[in-house]
Specification:
The chain is mainly α and 196 residues long. It has ten helices and no strands. The chain has two domains: 40 residues, Arc Repressor Mutant, subunit A (Orthogonal Bundle); 141 residues, Tetracycline Repressor, domain 2 (Orthogonal Bundle). Helix 4 packs antiparallel against helix 5 and helix 5 runs antiparallel to helix 7.
Length: 196
C-alpha cells in the first residue's frame, strides 16, 4: 500500500485506516495493522486518536463534510432548480468516486459506530439530503418538476441510484466520474420533469 510520507500524521493514519478497512474489513483490521502500515508506533496513533472507533468516525466525517461544503457552494450559485439539481447530482457522483474507499467503509461498517456518533453523522447526511429536497421542492413550486412524488422520496431514490456506485465503479473503465454523473443526472432529470 503506497502511503504519502509527507502527509501530516493524523491524515496519514486516516489514509491507512480507510484503505485497510476497505480491503480487509473493520473487524479484521487491528490497531497493529494500522500502525505497521503507517510506519508509526501505537503511541503515535493514540496521540491523535483514542481508538479504532474514532478512526472509523473520522473516515465518515471526511467525505460527508466535503459533500456538504460542495453542496453549499452549488446552492450559492443562484441557478434555477434544474441546473442546481444537475450540479448536485454530478457533485455527488464525483464525491463517491473521489472518496470511494471512505464510502465503501461507511456503507459496510456504519453499524459499528457508537450511537452518539452515528446520530451525529446521520444528522449530517440528513442536512446534505436537505439540499436535494429543497431544490426538488423549488422545482415543483415553479412547475419544472412533477408534483406526484414527494421531494424526500425522490431524494432517497436519487441517492439509491448514485450511492451504490461504490460497488461497481471501475476507475480504469471507459467513463470518467463526471461523465457518469452527467448520464445519471440526465436519467434523473428526465424522471422528474413534467410530462409534455
Amino acid at each position: 500500500m503506497a502511503i504519502n510520507d509527507n502527509m501530516p500524521m493524523p491524515d496519514r493514519l486516516i489514509e491507512v485506516a480507510v484503505k485497510l478497512f476497505a480491503e480487509k474489513g473493520y473487524d479484521a483490521t487491528s490497531v497493529a495493522d494500522i500502525v505497521e502500515t503507517a510506519g508509526v508506533t501505537k503511541g503515535a496513533l493514540y496521540h491523535y486518536y483514542t481508538s479504532k472507533d474514532e478512526l472509523l468516525s473520522q473516515i465518515h466525517r471526511r467525505f460527508i463534510t466535503a459533500e456538504i461544503k460542495d453542496a453549499q457552494r452549488i446552492m450559492a450559485q443562484g441557478w434555477g432548480p434544474r441546473e442546481t439539481l444537475r450540479h448536485l447530482i454530478i457533485s455527488l457522483v464525483e464525491s463517491i468516486v473521489s472518496y470511494r474507499f471512505e464510502v465503501t467503509v461507511f456503507f459496510r461498517e456504519m453499524h459499528r459506530l457508537p450511537s452518539s456518533v452515528f446520530d451525529e453523522i446521520k444528522q449530517a447526511r440528513d442536512d446534505y439530503a436537505g439540499f436535494f429536497e429543497k431544490t426538488i421542492r423549488q422545482g415543483q413550486e415553479l412547475g419544472e418538476f412533477r408534483h406526484d412524488s414527494h421531494p424526500r422520496m425522490m431524494t432517497l431514490a436519487l441517492f439509491g441510484a448514485c450511492n451504490w456506485m461504490y460497488t461497481w465503479y471501475n476507475p480504469d473503465g471507459p467513463f470518467s466520474a463526471r461523465k457518469i454523473g452527467e448520464q445519471l443526472a440526465d436519467i434523473i432529470m428526465d424522471g422528474l420533469s413534467c410530462p409534455g
